[in-house]
Design a protein that fits this description.
Oligomer: heterodimer
Largest sheet of chain B: none
Distance between the termini of chain B: 25 Å
Helix content of chain B: over 70%
Order of helices and strands of chain A: HHHHHH
Number of strands of chain B: 0
Structural class of chain A: mainly alpha
Low-confidence stretches of chain A: 1-10
Low-confidence stretches of chain B: none
Distance between the termini of chain A: 36 Å
Number of helices of chain B: 2
Strand content of chain A: under 5%
Shape of chain A: elongated
Largest sheet of chain A: none
Number of strands of chain A: 0
């Protein structure tokens, strides 16, 4: 005797609420950039959103603690400018750090390069998180 | 604190965590992928560090 012929399959991930229209998708991307994980939370992916919400700002904070530098947009030095774009990926945390006067960089600190690495990678990872939220919003994932 | 190994390990942990959560959907898969990635990060760093003793840059 077969029990429960219907409804046996269940979704592996939490159900998402995709934003179909262009404005909705743009808002998801903006929120995801400004608040790491915010786009996932907005789309109902709470577990993923919470991990990003905690992990990425912690990485950014460690980068500042280690004496990393928030690079300026010096387009005459392409690598510095690219690092600045990567730093900007941290969203509101980037602006908060700038506003509070952090991120000057302690070049003589032994951990200076580690700090830069944490800051840059935190921003780049948030760009990936934003792209993931974009895919979810378009119902691709 | 200026322990290079400590910061390397913390960096590997966070990057592995974010990638595992980003790329996988179930907790089991996330744990497996994250552990593999973390091991690869730390293992590769230790291997390269060990190789730099006989072959310094």
């Amino acid at each position: 005797m077969a029990a429960g012929g219907k409804g046996g399959a269940k979704p592996a991930a939490a159900p998402a609420r995709p934003a179909r229209d262009g404005l909705g998708v743009a808002i998801v991307c903006l929120v995801s950039w400004l608040v790491p994980g915010g786009g996932h939370l907005q789309l109902g992916r709470r577990g993923k959103g919470l991990v990003f919400l905690i992990a990425l700002p912690v990485m950014f904070g460690i980068g500042l603690y280690l004496g990393g530098r928030l690079f300026p947009f010096a387009w005459s030095e392409p690598l510095v400018a690219l690092a600045a774009v990567a730093d900007l990926g941290a969203g509101l945390w980037y602006f908060a750090a700038r506003f509070a006067g952090y991120g000057g960089g302690q070049v003589v600190a032994a951990t200076y390069e580690y700090g830069n690495t944490f800051l840059i990678v935190a921003g780049l990872l948030n760009f990936l998180v934003m792209l993931d939220a974009f895919d979810i919003a378009l119902d691709r994932k | 604190m200026a322990s290079h190994v400590l910061w390397l390990t913390i960096f590997a942990f966070f990057v592995s965590l974010v990638f595992a959560v980003l790329l996988r959907d179930t907790p089991r898969e996330q744990l497996r992928t994250g552990a593999m990635m973390f091991g690869a990060f730390v293992g590769a760093a230790l291997l390269l560090g060990w190789l730099m003793v006989p072959f310094p840059l």
